[in-house]
Design brief:
Structural class: alpha/beta
Low-confidence stretches: none
Order of helices and strands: HHHEEHEHEEEHHEHEHEE
CATH architecture of the largest domain: 2-Layer Sandwich
Radius of gyration: 22 Å
Strand content: 5-15%
Number of domains: 2
Strand order of the largest sheet: 5-10-8-9
Mean pLDDT: 90
Oligomer: single chain
Helix content: 40-55%
Bound molecules: zinc ion
Distance between the termini: 62 Å
CATH class of the largest domain: Alpha Beta
Number of helices: 9
Shape: globular
Largest sheet: 4 strands, mixed
CATH topology of the largest domain: Muramoyl-pentapeptide Carboxypeptidase, domain 2
Length: 282
C-alpha cells in the first residue's frame, strides 16, 4: 500500500475522532467542543520545549476549567444569562458540582431571582432548608437545547429536587441519594392514579428507565418523601408571579392537595417523568 494512502487514512481517522469529540463535548457542555479545538491550536502554538509533555487532554482540561471558572459566567451575564448560586447562597445549591462543571446551571436573571426568593420564603417555616437544583440551561443562545431536556433551551427552565428524609432518623437528606440527581422517584402508591403507567401502557417505554437506572445506586426503602416541605415548595413556586408553569406528576399533585394550583401540569408521555423532580419555567 503506498505510504501517502496510509497517511491519508490516518488523517481521516484523526479528523473523525476530533469531530466526534467536538460533537459530544458540545452536546454535554455547549462550550467544550469549541474549547477542544482551541486547546489543539494552543498546543501547536507553544514551542515543543515548553509543552512539558502535556497531552491534548491536559491542555483541554486546563483551558476548559479556566473558562468555566472565569470566562463563561461574565460572558453569559453580558448576553443575558446568569449562573445559579454555586457556593454563594446557603439555601440554593447544585445537586452535584457536575452540573456546574458542565455549564448546565445558567438561567435568565429573573428565574434566578425566583429560585432565590422562594428559598428565602422557605426559611420562614423550614429554617435551613436548601433548594437543590439539577439541569437548568446552557450559558448561551436561545434555541440551543440542553439534552436530554429538549425544552431547556431559553434560560427560562430549571429542574429542582424534591425534599427527602432518612427513613430511620426522619431527618432531611441533602439533595437526593442518586449520584446524578434524577431517578429518585415518589412513585404512585396503591389507590393513586399513575400517569406513568398509562404512558407505559401506550408504548412510551422511556418513561421508566430513569427510575430503574437511579435505583441501581441507592435503596429506595431508606428514604421517605417529605410531603409537607415539598407541598410548601411547590406552592411557593406556583404562586410566584414570574412562574408560568410547573411540571409534576398528577399523583403527586393529588397527594399534596394541590389540585387548585392552576400552574401545575403533567408533561405529556413524550417527556421524562416528574415524580423525581419538578420542572419550573417562567
Ligand atoms: Zn425540566
Amino acid at each position: 500500500m503506498p505510504i501517502y494512502f496510509l497517511k491519508l487514512r490516518v488523517t481521516v481517522w484523526v479528523f473523525l475522532g476530533h469531530a466526534i469529540l467536538f460533537l459530544m463535548l458540545t452536546i454535554l457542555t455547549q462550550t467544550g467542543g469549541v474549547i477542544w479545538f482551541a486547546a489543539l491550536i494552543v498546543k501547536h502554538l507553544i514551542p515543543v520545549r515548553f509543552r512539558f509533555r502535556f497531552s491534548q487532554l491536559a491542555f483541554f482540561g486546563i483551558l476548559y476549567s479556566m473558562s468555566t471558572l472565569w470566562l463563561i459566567p461574565p460572558l453569559a451575564k453580558v448576553l443575558g444569562r446568569e449562573q445559579l448560586p454555586i457556593w454563594s447562597n446557603a439555601h440554593v445549591k447544585p445537586e452535584s458540582f457536575l452540573f456546574w462543571y458542565l455549564n448546565r446551571t445558567y438561567v435568565r436573571p429573573e428565574l434566578k431571582k425566583v429560585v432565590e426568593e422562594v428559598a428565602v420564603q422557605m426559611q420562614d417555616q423550614y429554617p435551613g432548608a436548601v433548594i437543590y437544583y439539577l439541569d437548568a440551561c446552557f450559558p448561551f443562545f436561545d434555541g440551543f437545547p440542553l439534552l436530554p431536556h429538549l425544552s431547556h433551551r431559553d434560560g427560562k427552565k430549571i429542574d429542582l429536587v424534591f425534599f427527602w428524609n432518612d427513613q430511620k432518623t426522619g431527618k432531611s437528606v441533602q439533595g437526593t441519594p442518586s449520584p446524578y440527581g434524577y431517578g429518585v422517584c415518589a412513585k404512585a402508591g396503591q389507590g393513586e392514579y399513575s400517569y406513568i403507567k398509562e404512558c407505559l401502557g401506550q408504548g412510551y417505554w422511556y418513561f421508566s428507565p430513569d427510575n430503574r437506572f437511579g435505583e441501581l445506586f441507592y435503596d429506595p426503602a431508606r428514604y421517605t418523601f417529605d410531603e409537607e416541605k415539598n407541598r410548601e415548595m411547590v406552592i411557593r413556586f406556583a404562586r410566584h408571579p414570574d412562574v408560568g408553569k410547573i411540571f409534576i406528576e398528577p399523583h403527586l399533585k393529588t397527594r399534596l392537595s394541590l389540585e387548585k394550583e392552576d400552574k401545575l401540569r403533567k408533561q405529556g408521555c413524550r417527556a421524562a417523568r416528574h415524580d423525581d423532580h419538578i420542572h419550573v419555567q417562567m
